[in-house]
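Schema walk-through. Below, the input block comes first and the output block second. Nothing else is stored per chain. Lengths vary across the set, and this one has 266 residues.
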Amino acid sequence: MAIDQSRYQHIEFRYDVRILTIALNRPDALNAVNAGLHTELSRVFYDVAVDPDSDIVVLTGNGKAFCAGGDIKWMQDAIDDPAMFERTAVEAKGIFFGQLEVEKPMVCRMNGHATGLGASLALCCDVVYAADNAKIGDPHVSVGLVAGDGGCVLWPQLIGYTRAKEYLLSGDLMSAPDAERLGLINRAVPLAELDAIAYGFAGRLARGATKAIRWTKVTANLGLKALAHQIFDTGLGYEIQSNRTRDHQEAVNAFRERRAPTFTGT
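--- output ---
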């Protein structure tokens, strides 16, 4: 195996001929991102880029969720230590641009809910196939944070500005069938059919003209990367500021206490 599994505690790698499956591996926590997984995500796509044993990547989650966004304990740690959140923001840039820079086609096998950073991980893939009982959304505002780690770049390009802002400003989730209808993802299928469609397409690409396929992806991503370079740093800066607000602390408290938050705009 070209990628050293010993360097990763929260990501699992599986090879099938020239197809590499990257599986987020915190199933008991719905693959929510903690500090360790965030750090691993900030380097994994760079490792994938130079992996000589793969041509196609399938990104998925172990267990019943794809990725439930940020871990709530990790959010509290960032509130208690704002400097840690600033370091996290640097990693966030590595995750987003690392994924966009990978020349190998990436297929998302969205086996369950994808929220927050999980949604960005899914939507940064080139093709997204989802289980039809899954939901996707970017609920950063629901926890008092700015959607600074990719949502404000990706969603408007995929479904238009007015629809994107409806979801980004409300934090609402949408079902996978609705996401397919709006053009946010490619297909929503029964979970039992997900492997067939995701790996079927990955296999088709693996049998194709590798260089032509890679360079077509690179060309198609140029406009998105240029836009991301214009927007991403500002989004992260605002997210760092929102980490220091009372509303964010209130949202974390409310989540722990299983109640609705009471926001004050401070």
